[in-house]
Amino acid sequence: MGQVLRPAAKSGAGADRAFGLVTAAAAWFVLLLLAATAISMAWGGRLAFSTFGWGFITGKDWDVGAGRFGAFVPIYGTLVTSAIALIVAVPVSIGIALFLTDIAPRWTRGPVAIAIELLAAIPSIIYGMWGLFVFAPFMAAHVEPWAIQHLGIIPGIGALFRGPPIGIGMLTAGIVLGIMVIPFIASVAREVFSAVPPALRESAVALGSTRWEILSRVTLPYTRSAIIGAVFLGLGRALGETMAVTFVLGNAHDLSLSLLMPSNSIAAAIANEFTEADTELYRSSLIALGFLLFVVTFIVLTIAKLMLMRINRRLGRTY
Amino acid sequence: MRAIFFALPIAALLAGCNSSNTGNQSTSSAAGQITGAGSTFVYPVLSAWAADYKKSGGQDINYQSIGSGGGISQVKAGTVDFGASDQPLSSAELASSNLAQFPIVIGGIVPVVNIAGVAAGKLHLTGPLLADIYAGKVKRWNDPAITSINPGMALPATDIAVVHRSDGSGTTFNFTHYLAQVSPTWKAGPGEGKTVNWPTGVGGKGNEGVAAYVKQIPNSVGYVEYAYVVQNKMASTALQNAAGNFVAPGAQSFANAAETADWKNASDFNLVMTNAVGPNAYPITATTFILVPREAKDKSRTKAALSFFRYALQSGQAKADSLDYVPLPAPLVAQIDSYIAAKLK
What we know:
Radius of gyration of chain B: 21 Å
Shape of chain A: globular
Largest sheet of chain B: 9 strands, mixed
Helix content of chain B: 40-55%
Oligomer: heterodimer
Largest sheet of chain A: 2 strands, antiparallel
Strand content of chain B: 15-25%
């Protein structure tokens, strides 16, 4: 981290040492900031945690008037919308990356890659407005009535597609989130796909592989760990996304199995309610929600790291 | 992956700091500036008044529309010179935090709908019916409870999509206060408050959020301030008032509610005007209240704020009218003048 090579010349040794210390301090500062953030949020939420205990995480009520706060609905909404986002984004992103590295004519690759990176720079509120003004009416008029009619009657998964087609809800929010994270996953995936040694791919072609076989037997296995890293980068963004979600999720503390119904997410609840949280317990509960988002993100990223380590150990290489 | 992992808590930290800083910034502002914070409802007219006041030689008024709850807590903490709240404080609370309170401008909260073929002002609703819709008991637009008071109107056999506020709000307070007054089941159920435990529906942030949802969701109903109805050309509804008449929202029906509300017997103007008795009174008429400290550290600042409000009550009412608010009735202005003279010397 802060290690530097010791130069022979004496005059530079002091300066080098100072430089090493400065860079080390910068690195440690981030860790310190992280710890301080976690501690201060846990401290801010202590009233909620001490009042409700584990019930804060499992409680389904969010009743401001009665002073009862449970984070189950926002946690559920956050995880469900992020899961939908990944279901949408992962296949599309890998498709984009594969097309750009293997299939597209060479001259289109540069411009399209730049366009994808520009997509990543669009502010999330723009996605939110597009979601509300363009995408939600489309969902309400075309997609949701169809889903209710055809998927809602299937036993089991039918429960996911019930209720009035209002266009605002977990499914819409998840898809908008998915579109938002596509550029993140796609640009990393493109980088790693193009890092696959051409010799491997050429060998596969020489053996008579189809494009699908090259993808599934050569490219994906070779880049697996980096692709999983890219997916979790997208997931990290989806979990914490606020503005786009708050526009299309409906911000209602109702627990519903149906993906067409409004819900809430941790980040959206905080953004919506913090300004008018006028009791100690209310404010503390919102800060505790923030702490839970921190914990959820931490757990998800830890799982990602562990998965990577396991795969790497099994395959005996980094990638 | 790292970047997101670290950026997230930092962003949260910054957001946290931000909210506690708002007050400090206002105190450290220039000495000549009068600062206020609170209700978002009153912001358009208050900022218009402030601009006019400055042009006519008055002081700078810096108003931050952070929400009624925030306004109350900041004026209590003494970080601003005045607060503005859509929900009045009780005399006891005013006394304990040594504040004085008076109304400044009138507006209305209007149920709006988005139903194909239903024009503005056409749909009639009663208070108890509105409560049942918001409670999720009346689920469809062609429910007999709705069609019976709207004879001859073609209402679709579709589910009602309820839209409410997702943030705490004085608008919600006035709206739920009205529902609790006219519907015993609403009073026993969700009750009244700046935010309640909504049985159904989607939540929009701010008046603009509710307005946007109602415009985007077919067959929806929501409630917004009158100014949003006018500016966004939304389909308002006519509500049945305490006298039994269906009245459309507008300057006249708001004024009638303000005239017939019992201000004379309201100590410290602690009165919510909903369900007023006048024959043309609009039932969800609301007021924004100004809160000022009675014993500020720097009394000259309170004085300066009061002279701004005196200007607003006298010369500013035409401006209020042009922005779709309603001026206070003359007897009420006289009552405010004597209140200020008695309580804020």
